Amino acid sequence: MLWGPVFARLFHPRSPSVRLLHNRDAIVAGSDKASVNLMTPNLDVTSTLTMPWAMQMKAISAEDPSQLVHALTGAILGCGGWVLSRGANDTGTVNLLFEFERQVCVEVYTMLIESGLELSQAGHIRFTELCQCTRNHPVDCGGEIASVDLEIQTFPIEIVRSPHAVKWA
Asked: Is the entire prediction scored with pTM above 0.90?
């Protein structure tokens, strides 16, 4: 059997200049312009290897901060995750640090949206990447832990319920 030539025709080699988030292969940096200073980001390899899906996200919500903390805590626990820290301050900012097994990432993502949070665009992109990567490699990474540091800006209840509040048509 000559598998080598068969596989060589089936797979197209990836360009060495493309860096994938989940791939830790060394990439040779280069430029076609001599005046360009090449800088590589300072990646902490140990933290990347231990927690590759540690995500920081921002969101907004029109819910009361104390009710939001209570509802999100119960929902995270209901999905099989665990809350490491939670809190709300006087300005209406809610902070949640929670973790979950990657195999339930779709449930956690759904729960966040269902609770009325409006995630930032970057938050949606990161969760989509997590869900797609987990779906494509369920045996390899389904039991790994994902961590989310979520900052939610809530609107004061007085503004939301005010008779002078702007009403959208």
From this structure: no
Q: In angstroms, rounded to a whole number, what is the distance separating the alpha carbons of residues 160 and 165?
A: 6
CA 124 to CA 28: how far, in whole Å? Answer: 31
Q: Which residues of 87-119 are buried (b: 16+ CB within 10 A; e: fewer)?
A: ebeeebebebebbbbbbbbeebbebbeebebeb
pLDDT band at 164 (very low <50, low <70, confident <90, very high): low
In the block, residue with structure tokens 């060589």:
8
**CA torsion, ordered 100, 102, 103, 104, to nearest 10 deg:** 40
d(CA 122, CA 56): 9
Query: How far apart (Å, rounded) are the C-alpha atoms in residues 61 and 64?
Result: 8
Sorted by where each begins, the domain ranges of the chain are 45-157
Question: What confidence tier does 154 reach under pLDDT thresholds 50, 70, 90?
Answer: very high
